[in-house]
Design brief:
With about 500 residues, this protein is of the alpha+beta class. Helices cover about 35% and strands about 25% of the residues. It has helices spanning about 10-25, 40-45, 65-75, 90-95, 105-115, 115-125, 140-150, 175-190, 250-265, 295-305, 310-315, 395-410, 420-425, 430, 440-445, 455-480; strands at about 5, 25-35, 45-50, 75-80, 100, 155-160, 170, 195-200, 205-215, 220-235, 235-240, 270-280, 285-290, 335-340, 340-345, 350, 355, 355-360, 365-370, 375-380, 385-395, 410-415.
Amino acid sequence: MFRKILIANRGEIAVRIIATAREMGIGTVAVYSDADREALHVLEADQAVHLGPSDPSESYLHMDRIIAAAKETGAQAIHPGYGFLAENASFAGRCANEGIAFIGPPAGAIRDLGDKTKARRIMEKSGVPVIPGMMAPSGDPGVLAGEAGKLGFPVLVKAAAGGGGKGMRVVRSAGELVEACLSASREAKSAFGSGDIYLEKYLERPRHVEFQVLADSRGRALHLFERECSIQRRHQKIVEETPSTALTPELREQMGRAAVAAAKASGYVNAGTVEFLLDADGSFYFLEVNTRLQVEHPITEMVTGIDLVRLQIEIAAGAGLPFSQDDIRAEGHAIECRIYAEDPLSGFLPSPGRIVHVHEPTGPGVRIDSGIYPGFTVPVEYDPILSKLITHASTRGACISRMLRALRDYAILGVLTPIPFLADILASEPFARGETHTDFIEKHFTPWNPVLHGLDRAVLAYVIGDARGRRRAETASTGNAAEYSPWQALGNFRP
């Protein structure tokens, strides 16, 4: 087993990895940029190494500096978390060449699955259903127009590399195709360094269902059931749950087998996620493989009782899977809400700034993975995720009620958050009925008119009073008579 690992990431996922490493008796090394000198993951780790300026290219994406930090501190392995270098095949290869274990899949699997058209070919060959579409990228307008004609409109323009909804455009007519392709290619080039695009048949109102897979270096692979991730804004997930309300036991078994087949076909090792689109008729199609730990992994942990980060570390150290597919059980229901520093009333634009106060919910079946504390300044340079709120209960109805209570008990002052937006989603009739398709927000919450609940007011009265008291104390000690108004930070919570 490793004695020390370096976490090549920041925020809540770095804190999450540190917690499991500490449980395992493994030393941890944090890395940080100028903007993150006082970040929570820096404070939590056993050691911390400064990488450089706040620009990600000079810090969290700088391979040479991260490798040097691992060597300098004696770290035997690197956990990339998610984002930044987590799905960078070159970085995984660099680690292997330097004799440092990469806590993730082999570089070859990352490379093959990161190329979406190549991944589609691999899946088709292994019998995993794929959405009708191109099997190779193209920038030729004539080729793209011909493929669109074969598929029939609407079609989806997609970047061949990357993810997160970037480089994607829905095209509903031939007249829109050229501009959509050019726009998607430009965005993909900026985000991923490659402007390659391809076309898929666009499915109207599908569900986004993914399966957590695990594979060891001994050829064994299995799944830990599904997560429904259909509620998205800007093609990015914001609410996830397990089990999916759309899956029958038979369909769950079919999709699970396909997910394991996908992992084996690609030579996958470690934790990953096979994502599918589920059509209204029960047909499902391969979407992509995320070759890393997912943001929403906690809900799988809550229903299975399995620590995915621990297994990632153990597999990277050479251990085999400690259980078989038949050993895995999922108990109850779990939901995750992502808490970002962003404003739902302004198109979910980021809302960086200083965290003035945090009031976190507690109680049975409530988990918070957080990367913030009062006084921390949320940087403008990085993804604005602050924390993840997870609830678990014996039934879906009880889990929804628990999440609603937790959301209404959760207050963050200093930046805007989607907490009230999430509460309205969870309280809505369509969500209660399980009618969660990828157009959920557009259909039910565009526009959104915030609803302020009585419990919200009670919580805010408490935290606002506390924040005012703290600021008065600061004023008395510094002689600064400027009066701080926490109401300025309430945003959508404001009565």
